[in-house]
């Protein structure tokens, strides 16, 4: 693995991007940038960006490109990104993918791989409706497939786990439709640039991790 690597995790809501991003952070020290987490922090602090983002997130729609791109570009300009980044949930549109390519090129850097975590819709719906996470540290659990050691409590800091507002069934269905319309076309974009690395995301978490780690190690 070369010094600083930049990896994108591509996949539908619930595919396992956040789960695998945490592994890449822990194993390789990559900075984990989750656009969803950045928005949720702004929502919690009730910043103007948070108020705007919430109106889209609650409906399962994408936040507009201009504000999303600005937020992520500010984040990647910070010094901790020089050691490499795993992008989770960004880019989600062509405009975002192009903005990321341009920003990295300016710093003489480029994406090493776009790992596409593939999971069928029916499995995604089951996963998302059973997803719970820690409001303090962001650790992600699943009541069915990846439960915490003690019911309702984070393994890392014992905080009470919460369920995301947008993981209710109607919003999940809208998010999956939005993914098909606006994000799935990026699969072709990264295939054409030779960066696409498909992974079967329906395997056990540890199997998916082994494949994702092997891709990162080969860079
Ligand atoms: P998931 O990991 O389940 O796909 P995220 O936490 O990535 O969900 O995103 C939650 C919501 O935040 C999205 O439904 C969308 O409203 C907003 N969001 C996150 N990332 C982006 C992005 N790159 N572009 C536009 N909106 C985004
Ligand atoms: P994303 O960030 O792509 O929306 P998450 O990493 O939050 O996805 O995972 C969605 C839910 O599915 C979580 O509850 C997580 O614990 C669970 N999960 C993640 N990967 C797997 C897997 N390979 N098998 C079963 N459940 C998984």
Explain what the structure shows.
The protein is an alpha/beta fold and 219 residues long. It has a domain at 5-120 and 183-217: Rossmann fold (3-Layer(aba) Sandwich). Helices cover 47% and strands 15% of the residues. The chain contains 9 helices and 7 strands; from the N terminus they run βαβαααβαβαββααβα. It has helices at residues 17-28, 35-44, 48-57, 65-76, 94-106, 121-129, 169-183, 185-192, 205-217; strands spanning 5-10, 31-34, 84-88, 113-118, 131-133, 140-142, 196-200. The strands form 2 sheets. The chain has a 5-stranded parallel sheet with strand order 2-3-1-4-7, sandwiched between helices. A two-stranded antiparallel sheet has the order 5-6. The protein binds adenosine-5'-diphosphate (2 copies). The site of one adenosine-5'-diphosphate has 20 residues, from helix 1, helix 2 and helix 3.
Beta strand count: 7
The strands making up the biggest β-sheet line up spatially as 2-3-1-4-7
Percent helix among the residues? 40-55%
Ligand catalogue: adenosine-5'-diphosphate
Rg on CA atoms, Å: 16 Å
Low-confidence residue ranges? none
In CATH's first tier, which class of the domain at 5-120 and 183-217 applies? Alpha Beta
SSE class: alpha/beta
User: How much β-strand is present in the residues?
Assistant: 5-15%
- The end-to-end span amounts to 5 Å
Overall geometric form:
globular
């Amino acid at each position: 693995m070369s010094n600083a690597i930049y990896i994108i995790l591509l996949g539908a809501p619930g595919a396992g991007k956040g789960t695998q991003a945490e592994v890449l952070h822990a194993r390789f020290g990559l900075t984990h940038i989750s656009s969803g987490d950045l928005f949720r922090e702004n929502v919690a602090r009730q910043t103007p960006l948070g108020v705007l983002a919430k109106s889209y997130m609650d409906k399962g729609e994408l936040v507009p490109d201009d504000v999303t791109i600005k937020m992520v570009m500010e984040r990647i300009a910070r010094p901790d990104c020089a050691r490499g980044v795993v992008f989770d949930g960004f880019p989600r549109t062509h405009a975002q993918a192009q903005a990321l390519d341009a920003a990295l090129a300016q710093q003489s850097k480029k994406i090493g791989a776009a790992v596409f975590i593939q999971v069928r819709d029916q499995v995604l719906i089951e996963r998302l409706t059973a997803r719970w996470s820690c409001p303090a540290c962001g650790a992600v659990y699943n009541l069915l497939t990846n439960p915490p050691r003690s019911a309702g409590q984070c393994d890392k800091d014992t905080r009470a786990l919460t369920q995301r507002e947008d993981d209710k069934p109607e919003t999940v269905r809208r998010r999956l439709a939005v993914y098909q319309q606006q994000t799935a076309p990026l699969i072709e974009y990264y295939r054409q640039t030779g960066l696409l690395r498909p992974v079967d995301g329906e395997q056990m978490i540890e199997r998916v991790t082994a494949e994702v780690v092997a891709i990162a190690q080969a860079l």
